[in-house]
Design brief:
Shape: globular
Radius of gyration: 19 Å
Structural class: alpha/beta
Number of domains: 2
Number of helices: 12
CATH superfamily of the largest domain: NAD(P)-binding Rossmann-like Domain
Helix content: 25-40%
Strand order of the largest sheet: 9-8-7-6-10-11-12
Order of helices and strands: EEEHEHEHHHEHEEHEEEHEHHHH
């Protein structure tokens, strides 16, 4: 993993921990960004090409997300280099070794993220005694199974749609990354009358302007197959999802998928950022100039972490989902009204909301420490 000398600001990071065990191929990083609001809560991401830079940016996104959501948690993130589709025994060995190395890092609570799931969190809990997003049989509210993040995206969509001069009934939706987040967002939006016209995964894109069968597509993915196995629609390359004409575009995969060099290809009226840091700042500014409304990641996709935080304190699924709806709807409304009043990007309004809360929390800590 590459280094990142000289990074940080007055909010953090509070701590960066590198963990390496060459004998088993373990290379991982933890970034605890800020703990003024409480112990950092953030997911464990597993991918072959993760970096310290990515981890630090994601950790900051979690600081903002947890603050905006009103959670008693700071922000952190951990990344583990490796193919998440490796044999289960090898994956368990790496995750357990990483968790064991961090067993005394009480400022951080693991959660699931891209490449990890509730089963992985059970291994972490066994090694450290603390984790969120656990399997139901050990008291968890499985985020991927119930779709907490997708539920939150749907709540955000309902509030944001009128600001983008849209109604959800009949709105055409394209999902980039039809996985744990994307499939549930599509399902909840379809229940409100939206039409899924395109979806992509690592293998490619399927596009059907008349609408795809969301339930059938989810069944394919849960059987371990690709969206390209869908019998309907045109089969295109993975990046073709950018070119699909739609009303709502949902990025739900990796960071920086929309950049200055490809943002002109996007044809949507409303973007709901289901992934963390999926757009570069320049891309968001470009879309704003075109009149495209972009809901920032740490507002739109906070459903997962709200659910994880409530699970950690013993809440039920219904309590968690009610809290997700209440908080995301209120934040979406507040951010969009503030952005309109001050004529700034939604991200600027959202960042201001979150940072104010973090700074107030920092001011209440002894010596104002992170």
């Amino acid at each position: 993993m590459s280094s990142m000398p000289g990074f940080g600001d007055d909010l953090g990071p509070a701590k960066v921990v590198h963990v390496r065990e060459p004998g088993i191929g373990l290379a991982a990083v933890l970034v605890v960004d800020n703990v003024a609001r409480g112990p950092a809560l953030g997911g464990l991401r597993m991918a072959p090409d993760v970096t310290l830079e990515e981890c630090a940016r994601l950790a900051r996104a979690m600081t903002l997300k947890n603050s905006a959501a009103g959670l008693a948690h700071g922000g952190g993130k951990s990344v583990l280099a490796g193919d998440p589709r490796m044999p289960a025994a090898d994956k368990e060995r790496l995750i357990r070794a990483f968790a064991h190395a961090l067993r005394n890092e009480s400022d951080y609570i693991f959660g699931p993220d891209m490449g990890t799931d509730e089963g992985c969190m059970a291994w972490v809990k066994d090694e450290t005694g603390r984790a969120s997003g656990l399997p139901a049989e050990i008291g968890g509210i499985p985020l991927d199974e119930f779709g907490a993040t997708g539920w939150g995206l749907c709540q955000c969509a309902e509030v944001a749609a009128p600001f983008a001069k849209l109604t959800l009934a009949g709105a055409r939706v394209a999902v980039q990354g039809f996985g744990a987040v994307g499939k549930h967002a599509a399902r909840f939006l379809a229940e409100r009358g939206a039409i899924l016209v395109a979806a992509s995964d690592t293998s490619g894109t399927v596009h059907e302007p008349r609408g795809l069968d969301v339930a059938a597509l989810i069944a394919l993915k849960e059987a371990g197959r690709s969206v390209l196995d869908c019998p309907l629609g045109r089969k295109l390359d993975r990046d073709a999802i950018l070119d699909v004409e739609c009303d709502i575009w949902i990025p739900a995969a990796r960071p920086d998928v929309v950049r200055e060099d490809n943002v002109a290809r996007l044809k949507a009226k409303l973007v709901l950022q289901g992934a963390n840091i999926p757009f570069t700042p320049g891309a968001e500014s470009s879309l704003a100039r075109r009149g495209v409304l972009v809901m920032p990641d740490f507002i739109a996709n906070a459903g997962g972490v709200i659910c994880a935080a409530m699970e950690y304190r013993g809440a039920t699924r219904s309590q968690a989902f009610d809290a997700i709806a209440e908080k995301i709807r209120a934040n979406t409304e507040a951010v969009l009204r503030d952005a309109g009043r001050r004529e700034v990007l939604p991200r600027e309004a959202a960042t201001g909301l979150a940072v104010r809360q973090v700074r107030m929390a920092m001011g209440r800590r002894r010596f104002g420490i992170l």
